[in-house]
Amino acid sequence: MKKSRSEVEQRRKDILTIVSENGEASVAELSDKLKVSPLTIRRDLQHLEDENFLERFYGGAKRGANLKEDEVRAEIDVYRETIAKYAASLVEDGDSIFINTSSTALRMIKYIKSENVTVITNNGNVINGVHPPNLSIILTGGELRYMKGAMVGDFALNSLSRVTAKKSFIGCSGISLQSGMTTELANEVQINEIMFSRVTERAYILADHLKVEKNSSFVSCPINKITDIITDTQVSDEVAEAYKQNGIRMHRV
Description:
Layout lengths: L4 H18 L1 E3 H8 L3 H13 L3 E4 L2 E4 L5 H21 L6 E4 L3 H5 L9 E5 L13 E5 L3 E3 L4 E3 L1 H7 L4 E7 L2 E3 L3 E4 L5 H9 L1 E8 L11 E4 L6 E4 L5 H9 L3 E4 L1
Parallel strand pairs: 4-5, 4-9, 5-6, 9-12, 12-14, 14-15
Antiparallel strand pairs: 1-3, 2-3, 7-8, 10-11, 11-13
């Protein structure tokens, strides 16, 4: 069936976003991510190259002169901000919550309106954020990784192993039905695992559409232990249904 013009335009927009975030992308990667044939991707790349948005090379494409990286990143930020707002709306009075090193998860703090909320996090960047007066923040401590502001290592693990939370909000590098939730950093795997396991209510994964059906290096949580994913409306009905068939609720906001 022939795709509508809006679907084609959206797919090409998604291609630009992926290339902008990664610098370049292969035809195989784009085909797998966007669930269309390599031939369709090549046609899209040719169109985008003609508009000077991309520069094609054998097997893929890289950023072109007209690809305004700041504008594309700003659009992704809108999705992530929306995800953060929705996540904050799930926090109730008296909740204790885990938040990991995810920048999207960190954003939700400023939107929490419930009273007497306790945030337990290994995200050192929380120190420089906006803190509503209705919540308290507990840092795990640990070895500080300056580039990301992450607190990791045995000290952080020992701190987390002594507490439980009602809910957790955990960002990721990728999530797929094949691998579950994955991260790029090995030293965050155990911390994420604890934040999943030591909750009395629900554990939420925060992932914008570019991270859905994407695999990263290290598995933090297998797919059979995941119950809720908060993502954006760019995730298709077909993908959401596939996750539903695996017992996972996908909140598209």
